[in-house]
Amino acid sequence: MRTILYSFGIFLLLFNIGCALPKSPSVSEMAGLPYPFSTRYLELSDGIRVAYADEGKGNQTILFVHGLGSYYPAWKNNVSVLSEKYRCVAIDLPGYGKSSKENYSGSMRFYAGIIKEVCDKLGIQKVTLAGHSMGGQISLVAALTYPELVEKLVLVAPAGFETFNKGEKEWFRQVMTADGVRLTTAEQIRTNLAYNFYTMPVDARFMIDDRLAMRTASDFPGYCYIIPQSVRGMVDEPVYDYLPQVKQPSLIIFGENDNLIPNRYLHGGPTRKVAEDGASRMPAAQLKMIPKAGHFVMFEEAETVNQLVTDFLR
Q1: Model-level pTM?
Q2: What is the CATH classification number for the domain harbouring 172?
Q3: Residue pLDDT, tens place only, 62-94
């Protein structure tokens, strides 16, 4: 009898501990994610629906393009400040965030075309593209494809400066799969996101919560699909050889302690080397390296980045 009571007591203790643990956040669809700005929608060609924020007014317009696996709230510390002086448009690329999800190609040209169509729909004739990581490579392709539209570039830890050989490109194609994205554990999600920062700020915690919540969304499979497609788009459409053709004035910003560029599994080494090499190939570029900052430098060191952007656009 004493053994039964003891076992029951242990059960109650474990049950109460379990009840005290916070549950992972969840949403029925990704449109239910809490966003920092009022979200609007544009209906584009081929039934594509793009979610976006449109904040502030000014003589210059900045269009913010997020990176791989991300969404426009990643720019919230920048839009909230820069919108005091400029019109700031931040978009969820198709396949990401609250935008529509279908079997999109994920190519850089596809996304460059989306930027052009968004600008046309919003009546933007000249734009400064601010692109982070993959968004930086997309912005470079857009600048090369639509030079009459893209007036300036702000490239934050841009993909495209680092080069990969044929075998390395194939490694990317093999290692990144939809199932791999779908089955990423909660602990790995936390680790992956933390690795984007030199020191992860407390106010960046929402990125982890949102990524955990996405797993219950009905459109999560579409998100899992687009990530490997986007990776293929990046490696299949390198921009390094075309950097000398980018004539637009360009501000390039890297964190000194970027853990993602260069790729730590394939190359390693200092971020500065990759940053300086890419910037030196662009005829109208200036490079700013920010110490004690990681891949999400625009979030981690928002005050510094916002001042750099303001000075650049001024």
Answers
A1: 0.92
A2: 3.40.50.1820
A3: 999 999 999 999 999 999 999 999 999 999 999
